[in-house]
Each structure stands twice: as C-alpha cells, then as structure tokens.
Amino acid sequence: MERINFKGKFIVKAELVLLTGLHIGGQDNTIEIGGIDNPVIKDERGIPYIPGTSLKGKLRTLMEYYHEKIDENKLVWVKKGEIKIHMCDDKDCPVCNLFGRNHGKHTFVNDENKMFENLMPTRLIVRDAKLIQESITDEMRNNLDTSYTEVKHENTIDRITSSANPRQNERVPAGARFKVEFVINVYNDEKVKYLKELITAMKLLEDDYLGGSGSRGYGKVKFENISISFRDKGFYLGISDEKELKKLNDTTEKIDWESMKIE
C-alpha cells in the first residue's frame, strides 16, 4: 500500500448562478388538490437548495465522459441491470481519485469480476449549496408562484389519440444564486493536479446542465465570484493562516497554475 501524506486542503468557494430554471426533484408525500406534481427539493425551512450529491454526481458524470471512461470495460454495476458508472482500480485514474471509488469486489458490465485494492481516499467533498435568498428580488417574486419558485406547466400529447397529459414542474427561477463550496484533500506531491480537474469539471457543467429536463432548457448554470485558498497542516495546528491563492470573476479567466505554490 502506498504511503499517504496529508498536505492540506484546497477550499474553492463560488456562486452558482441559474441562467435558466432549475428542477432538482424533492418528495412531497402530501400532495393536495391543486398542489404541484413535481416539487423541487427544499431544506428544513422550506427553502430550495442544491444537494451536494446532485452537484458531485453531475460533475463526476461529465468527467467520466471527458476522460473517455464510458465503455463496458470501464463501467461497473452499482445496481445490476439498471445503474452503471465508471469505477476502476487504476491508482492514477483522475475520476476515481477525485470523486472516489468503493473498495471490494465489483462486477463490470462485460461480466468481469474484480477486487479493487487501491486504498487512496476520495479527495473531493461537495457541500450542499444554499440559496442566497437576496438573489430572489422583489421584482422576481412578483412573477413567482411561491416565495422562491415558479411553476412551469407542460403537456405531452399522444401522437395517435391526441389525448393530453398535463403536468406541473416546480423550478427555482433564472437569476437565483447559490453558495457552493468544494474541498479537495491534497496528498503527497499532487499539488494542484486535482484542483485543475475540478475547474475543468465546472467548465464542462456550464456547457451542460444541472438537474432534470436539461435537454429541454432547464438547468443552465454559471459559476461566478470564485475564490481558491489553501489550508496546510499548520492551519489545523493553529500556527499558520489560510493562504488565499486566487480570485476569479468566472471560469473563463486564465489561471497561472505555476503561481499557485503550496508546500
């Protein structure tokens, strides 16, 4: 087993801006007459948020395609016959090393069984993203259906009988902003290797979508006001400060990676 030396943590904070309405489904077990068919997920205060699992899962999927990990020799069953993702035992795999892998025995889509023995820990932590309530302006509220969301009415027409199947989707409106936070654990001599991977994933997401119905216009997002800092081991011992490395208006700004010196 490779020795693992903890070097510190990158803290990446940003605002995620909705350019089109976002639907990440929640559960409503008490649908009332006139209620919404497909509500968005909300926190304990009834305020929409973006679960870290949803954001991390989308970023991972995009990076699996980016690194050409989608074929039957590289996909394992998470749920036999239904759900498959990329996972492998390659100690240099950028996807598994950043987003994580489950250890133990796995079955690939090609029916090969393999015991994963690489014990490197997951590096990326994605926090739940809280809504910046001030981003929902009074002008926006005048056009919303609830305090924080809009209801989009959609319809599917049977091609033969022309019978209609109307439905309602709750969405967080365009213009809403969420606070996002990523933490990347740094080990050995990796330096900014996995930070680069995260920035790439954020760019890919901006040209894709988050949440449901993305191919029909939902979930276009953009990252703004990005800050990158580093906390070394001394920070956690109380003998050094957090090191601010970079502030970016958005992901289009060039990053001088050589200037990001960490010990």
Automatic annotation (TrEMBL):
Pfam families: RAMPs. Transmembrane segments: none annotated. Keywords: Antiviral defense, Endonuclease, Hydrolase, Nuclease, RNA-binding. InterPro entries: CRISPR-assoc_RAMP_Csm3, CRISPR_Csm3_endoribonuclease, RAMP_III_fam. Residues 16-222 form the CRISPR type III-associated protein domain. Belongs to the CRISPR-associated Csm3 family. This is CRISPR system Cms endoribonuclease Csm3. It comes from Thermosipho affectus. The lineage of its organism: Bacteria, Thermotogati, Thermotogota, Thermotogae, Thermotogales.
